[in-house]
From TrEMBL:
The keyword Chaperone does not apply. GO terms for cellular component: mitochondrion. This is Mitochondrial genome maintenance exonuclease 1. Its main location: mitochondrion. Metal-dependent single-stranded DNA (ssDNA) exonuclease involved in mitochondrial genome maintenance. The keyword Nuclease applies. Residues 89-98 have a biased composition (Polar residues). Its EC number is 3.1.-.-. GO terms for biological process: mitochondrial DNA repair; mitochondrial DNA replication. Keywords: Exonuclease, Hydrolase, Mitochondrion, Nuclease. It comes from the Eukaryota. It comes from Mytilus edulis. Residues 61-84, 100-123 have a biased composition (Basic and acidic residues).
Length: 369
């Protein structure tokens, strides 16, 4: 193909001039003949006639606007003016973009500040009340730190509230709802008088069961106990647990927490399975295989543990602090009782819950007065 192209060009140029020029073009388009000056001029002239004037290519960016350009001064001046306008417009655009970006950044900063403020806000924050807020951080074990409980003593007056009363008056709305629904159901089935009689029987049976537990752990034989007929099933349920209690330190004793200003009477302080525990005896017709089924009972146990540790009871007996508890559920049908052990970690968790309830109680008392 290259050879044919070279022959065609040589014929065309020779027809326009008297010069006889022959080409010997190789495949790489390299000539083997040496040309003189006149021949080169003639070739340039022929190229001009064939292909027109020589054109200078623009850069790739300028090719998008126009394919070719001339080198005249007028055109270059126009191009310079246009480029000047373009640079000015670009500069102005940069300035406007800069202003917009600054505005956008200011807006974004404001939004970020707003978001940050929203995130930093706490959904619920307890009002600071130095007179009673020390309650929330009081330790379960004995503390040598001195606290000012004069406001609690003044608010309590002559009657120091019991653990049972505090738990009852700080019950959640959901727990109150379930309790009221249960009462209405029982009254609808038994009537008002029948429900009152049931409560009296339940209290009497509970007192009898606790009294027999106390006598048994004090060394009285089971054959000499006066167990009510309604409590025979309960006794059968807890018999094995009672046999595992090795040492009863205190039974049915009253205790008071001087610094937190509450009191109560716990069921039993004894060694159960080689650990000193505060044992709380409960009865239930419904099975309670997990500690969650006992509702507020773990909080009650933690409250008694904190009060015992703050009192002189253990010191008088030469014993260490108590950090374990046990909830024993006895059933009227005689099935084996469920025993829920509370280790120190679980007792500490429920102690914190007790302090929340105690703080809530004293806050209500202060608001009323």
């Amino acid at each position: 193909m290259a050879r044919l192209t070279g022959q065609w060009l040589s014929k065309l140029m020779c027809s326009k001039s008297n010069l006889s020029v022959s080409f010997n073009i190789s495949l790489r388009f390299k000539t083997t003949k040496n040309y003189d000056v006149k021949e080169i001029i003639q070739l340039n002239y022929d190229n001009y006639n064939l292909y027109g004037p020589k054109l200078n290519r623009k850069s790739k960016k300028s090719e998008e606007k126009s394919e070719y350009h001339t080198s005249s001064e007028v055109e270059s001046h126009k191009q310079s003016e246009k480029s000047g306008k373009l640079t000015k417009s670009k500069a102005s655009n940069k300035q406007t973009v800069g202003v917009k970006s600054d505005k956008n950044s200011e807006v974004s900063n404001k939004n970020n500040e707003k978001k940050g403020n929203k995130e930093s806000k706490v959904p619920f924050q307890r009002k600071i009340d130095p007179a009673i807020d020390y309650i929330l951080t009081y330790p379960m074990v004995r503390s040598d730190a001195e606290v000012d409980n004069s406001l609690l003593v003044q608010s309590a007056g002559r009657l120091i509230p019991s653990v049972t009363r505090i738990i009852s008056e700080t019950m959640s709305d959901l727990s109150k709802f379930y309790l009221e629904r249960w009462k209405k159901k029982m009254i609808s089935e038994l009537g008002a008088e029948g429900f009152k009689k049931l409560q009296e029987e339940t209290f009497r049976n509970g007192s009898n069961l606790h009294a027999n537990i106390q006598h048994y752990l004090s060394g009285i034989p089971e054959t000499e106990l006066d167990i009510y007929k309604d409590n025979i099933g309960h006794w059968d349920s807890i018999r094995k647990v009672l046999q595992e209690v090795k040492e009863a330190v205190a039974i049915e004793e009253a205790v008071k927490h001087e610094d937190l200003c509450y009191q109560g009477k716990f069921d039993c302080l004894a060694v159960y399975k080689d650990r000193l525990c505060l044992v709380d005896w409960k009865t239930s017709k419904k099975s309670k295989p997990t500690i969650k089924d006992t509702f507020d009972n773990p909080i009650q146990v933690a409250a008694y543990i904190g009060a015992i540790n703050n009192s002189q009871l253990l010191q008088d007996k030469g014993m260490d602090q108590i950090t374990n508890g046990a909830i024993v559920i006895a059933y009227p049908d005689g099935q084996p009782a469920h025993v829920h052990i509370m280790d120190q970690k679980l007792c500490e968790e429920n102690w914190k819950l007790w302090l929340e309830r105690l703080h809530m109680y004293w806050k209500k008392v202060r608001e009323i007065k």
